[in-house]
Amino acid sequence: MSIPQEAPVARPRSEQLTRVVAISVGLVFVVAGIWAFVAPRSFFENAALFEPYNAHFIRDIGAFQLGLGAVLLLAVWLRDALLVALIGVGVGAVAHVAAPVTDHDLGGDPAVDIPTFAVIAILLIGTAVVRARRLRP
Q1: Percent of the chain beyond pLDDT 70?
Q2: Angstrom distance (rounded) from CA 98 to CA 59
Q3: What are phi and psi of 6, to 5 degrees?
Q4: Largest pairwise CA distance in the chain
Q5: Of 17, 55, 83, 85, which shows the fewest CB atoms inside 10 Å?
Q6: CA terminus-to-terminus distance, the chain
Q7: pTM, rounded to two decimals
C-alpha cells in the first residue's frame, strides 16, 4: 500500500515575483557590501563618490549592506520573522566588528569599539541559534 503524497503547492505569481525581487535585491546588497568592505577605495570611486573619502565609513556602509542583503535572502527561506531579523542583523553586526579591527589605525576607539560591537554580534547570533533550535520541528 502506498502513502498518498500531497501535490506540490503552486505559488501565485505575485508570491514568485516577490521572492525573485527579494533574492535579486538581497544579492545586490550582499555583493555591494562585500565590495565596500573589501575594496573601500574602489567602492568610493565607482559607486559612492561623496567627498571626503573615509575607508572606515565605507566599510561600515558595507557592513550595513551585508545585513540588509542577509535579511532579504533569509526572509525567502525562513518563516520566522524574528529569526530572520536576528540572523540578518547579526551578519551586519559581525561585519561591523571587523571594520574597527581592520581600521584600528584610522581613528575611533578600538579598545571600546571592538568589544562593544563584538558583544552585540554575539548576543544577536547567540540568540538566533537558541531561537532556531527552539523552532526545530
Answers
A1: 93
A2: 9
A3: -75, 140
A4: 73
A5: 17
A6: 27
A7: 0.84
The set of cell numbers assigned to 25 is 535585491
Report the distance separating Cα 26 and Cα 21, nearest Å. Answer: 8
Q: In the chain, where are the structural domains located?
A: 18-135
Cα–Cα dist 85/18, whole Å: 18
Chain segment 88-100, per-residue pLDDT in tens: 999 999 999 998 8
Grouping H, G, I as helix, E, B as strand and the rest as coil, residue 120 is: helix
Q: Which amino acid is at 105?
A: D
| Tens digits of residue pLDDT in 20-78 | 999 999 999 999 999 999 999 999 999 999 999 999 999 999 999 999 999 999 999 99
Of 60, 82, 61, 55, nearest to 71 by C-alpha is 82
Query: What Rg do the C-alpha atoms of the chain give, in angstroms?
Result: 19
How many Å apart are CA 118 and CA 99, to the nearest integer? 11
Distances (CA, A) of 39 to 33, 36, 55, 61, 99: 10, 6, 9, 12, 12
Cell of 52: 571626503
